[in-house]
Specification:
The protein has 113 residues and is mostly helical. The protein has a domain at 26-87: Orthogonal Bundle (434 Repressor (Amino-terminal Domain)). It has helices at residues 18-21, 27-47, 51-58, 62-69, 78-87, and strands at residues 3-6, 9-12. A two-stranded antiparallel ribbon has the order 1-2. Helix 2 (27-47) runs parallel beside helix 5 (78-87) and helix 3 packs across helix 4. It starts with a strand and ends in a 26-residue tail after the last helix. The model has no long low-confidence stretch (mean pLDDT 91).
């Protein structure tokens, strides 16, 4: 992270990944899960269904869905979250492509359309 002054106050700019900023060892995975869960929550809200109805649709216990929607998704795989999206009527596509030479290594990101 870098520092700069804003209105005379020194601030530290984030990386765009709050989990990395907080020094989580699995920051990239946590960010991906958070993005997937945010989309699941958005779809449930848009459908106007209750957590109980959504849990039945997703075939998970309602308390587990409640925990997911409150950001408690440790121990839940990205695959499980993608399965939830498909059960909510979304296609999930994984695209693998070459990273730019300037970066060298690849990165994982999610694009919602």
């Amino acid at each position: 992270m870098s520092k700069r002054k804003v209105q005379g106050v020194e601030v530290e700019l984030g990386t765009g990944n709050v989990y990395a900023d907080l020094s989580y060892a699995d920051a990239d995975a946590m960010l991906i899960k958070a993005q997937l869960v945010a989309k699941i929550a958005e779809i449930i809200k848009r459908k106007g269904i209750t957590q109980t109805q959504a849990a039945a649709l997703l075939e998970i216990p309602q308390p587990k869905l409640s925990n997911l929607l409150r950001g408690r998704f440790r121990g839940v795989s990205e695959r499980r979250l993608m399965d939830c999206l498909t059960k909510l009527g979304r296609d999930v596509q994984i695209v693998v492509k070459a990273a730019p030479r300037s970066r060298g290594s690849g990165r994982l990101s999610i694009v919602f359309s």
